[in-house]
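Progress note, sequence design subtask.
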């Protein structure tokens, strides 16, 4: 089992991911700007404990960043010197309120590419969890949605696909980190679909895949 820090883990997506990983037997530390708030969230979801973001990122096998785009750069700056050799999983979608139903990718091409620039070339960066509804993930129900996983580090990509399986999700390799732009853009479309069709957390599912798992 892995030691995992969930950065920004007091938010809806962070708590949902932390809960599923903790239930699967991983040692999960929730990180937040406030260690007290992080500890409360950890108790709510059965995580090992709570800490500040920088402390939660230290000494971990995997660090998962679950913050809104407005806090993306600042949070990465907080943890940059603490992640070490950990696999860093960035879940950030570049939504720009109030027009969240329109694709608004940054000039760099994606939030994932921006994260790589903030953290440095040596980081083992993975991008994932863009299209899973947090309010469904927080419960034990089976989620009819695939999770696309992107990274230039093939081994790290495989580790995160495995974590998806631990969370009772189907993780699929989406290829190189730059491909994350497709999933980040898709989130705005899913928000639009939810509103237009009255859906409760629309997702994506890929068909016709013959291999059970590939990285």
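Output:
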């Amino acid at each position: 089992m892995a030691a995992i820090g969930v950065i920004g883990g007091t938010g809806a997506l962070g708590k949902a991911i932390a809960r599923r990983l903790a239930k699967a037997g991983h040692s999960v530390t929730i990180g937040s700007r406030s260690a007290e708030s992080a500890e409360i969230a950890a108790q709510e979801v059965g995580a090992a404990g709570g800490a500040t973001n920088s402390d939660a990122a230290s000494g971990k096998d995997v660090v998962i960043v679950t913050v809104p785009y407005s806090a993306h750069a600042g949070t990465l700056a907080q943890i940059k010197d603490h992640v070490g050799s950990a696999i860093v999983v960035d879940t950030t979608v570049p939504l720009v309120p109030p027009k969240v139903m329109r694709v608004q990718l940054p000039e760099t091409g994606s939030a994932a590419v921006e994260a790589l620039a903030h953290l440095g070339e040596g980081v083992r960066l993975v991008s994932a969890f863009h299209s899973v509804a947090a309010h469904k993930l927080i419960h034990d129900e089976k989620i009819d949605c695939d999770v696309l996983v992107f990274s230039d580090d093939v081994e790290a990509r495989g580790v995160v696909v495995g974590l998806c399986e631990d969370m009772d999700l189907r993780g699929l390799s989406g290829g190189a980190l730059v491909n994350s732009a497709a999933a980040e853009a898709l989130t705005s479309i899913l928000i639009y679909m939810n509103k237009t069709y009255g859906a409760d957390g629309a997702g994506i599912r890929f068909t016709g895949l013959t291999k059970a798992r590939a990285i």
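The chain has a mean pLDDT of 95. Work on this subtask will continue into the next period as scheduled.
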